[in-house]
Amino acid sequence: MAQHDVKVDSMAKVVTAVGAVLLLIVVGYMVQSLLNTVDRNSTKGEVAVAPAAPAAPAATEAPAATAAPAAEATSTAPVAAAAAGDAAAGKAKYATCAACHGAHGEGGGAFPKLAGLSAADAEGKLKKYRAGEQLGPMTSMMAPNAASLSDADIGNLAAHIAAFGGAAPAAPAEAAPVVAAAGGAGDVAAGKTRYASCAACHGMNAEGQGIFPKLAGQSAADLASKLKKYRAGEQVGPMTAMMAPNASGLSDGDIDNLSAYIASL
User: Fold this and answer.
1) Mapping DSSP to helix (H, G, I), strand (E, B) and coil, where does residue 34 land?
2) What sign results for the dihedral spanned by CA atoms 167, 141, 123, 156?
3) Distance set, CA 43 to CA 32, 40, 50, 53, 76 (Å)
4) What is d(CA 238, CA 139) in angstroms, rounded to the nearest whole number?
């Protein structure tokens, strides 16, 4: 039996080769696409985890909310700290004040009435006098008296003064006019009128009271000499700080009249 050789068409070879190349291209494209997809997905996954930071502001606001009540509490503390004084202790301390302001705070002469002041007002004024603040014409007399007072002394005095209330007993009636005078160049009647402001400290009849000395019994010459020294600001004794302001406005005639009247008592 005869054998026949199989003939392969050259065109078929070309088509097969081209098909194989195309297949490789398609497979390569698909592999590349798959790799790109995997790469993009992995990148997006990393970015998606990042936004966690904005939670911080909540932590910074929390302390502010708790701090407010503490500040409020400290602002109200001084009000609660004020304590009432001891009126009984204040009464004992008031003994020297009574010489000018009266036993019941009724005042007299140049010295004002204290009855009717609240404890807070009395305490406030005493602390200002102690600090040397200028409150009025009596500052030069009050400041030395208040300088040695402690806070407790002031609180106690204020409590005692407040206990007077508003209805203090009236100041004692002035003694009957003294008829004139033995000697001296001054006018006794004019001196008696001028003495009204002195009586609050030295007594209606110059008998003295408390820390204020007796004037009755001194000669007109001695009295006039002392008053002129006080007026000049000379240091006469422990009462100079109180007397100098009172004498500073006296004329020579006023001094002669006062001296004549006091010498007549």
Assistant:
1) helix
2) negative
3) 17, 5, 12, 20, 61
4) 17
pTM of this structure: 0.40
- What pLDDT sits at residue 201? 82
Instruction: List the structure tokens of 184.
Output: 């001296």
Half-sphere exposure of 182 (CA within 13 A, CB side): 9
CB atoms within 10 A of CB 11: 8
Backbone angles phi, psi at 233, to 5 degrees: 85, 15
- In the chain, the amino acid numbered 60 is T
pLDDT of residue 42: 52
pLDDT at 259 over 50: yes
Are 87 and 177 a contacting pair, CB within 8 Å?
Answer: no
Find the Cα–Cα–Cα–Cα dihedral 234, 236, 237, 242, rounded to 10°: -60
Instruction: Report whether 160 contacts 90 (CB < 8 A).
Output: yes
Q: Which two tokens stand for residue 94?
A: 């008031």
Exposure of 145 by Cβ count < 10 A (0-12 exposed, 13-18 middle, 19+ buried)? middle
- The answer to whether residues 116 and 164 touch, using CB atoms and an 8 Å cutoff, is yes
Count of Cβ atoms closer than 10 Å to residue 54 Cβ? 7
Res 228: pLDDT: 94
Dihedral angle computed from the Cα positions of residues 239, 242, 244 and 250, in that order, rounded to the nearest 10 degrees: -120
DSSP 79-134: HHH-----HHHHHHHTHHHHHHH-TTS--BTTBPP-TT--HHHHHHHHHHHHTT--
Please identify which residue in the block is written with the tokens 């001054």.
Answer: 186
Output DSSP code: residue 185: S
Phi and psi, residue 209, nearest 5°: -165, 140
Q: Determine contact, residues 75/145, Cβ cutoff 8 Å.
A: no
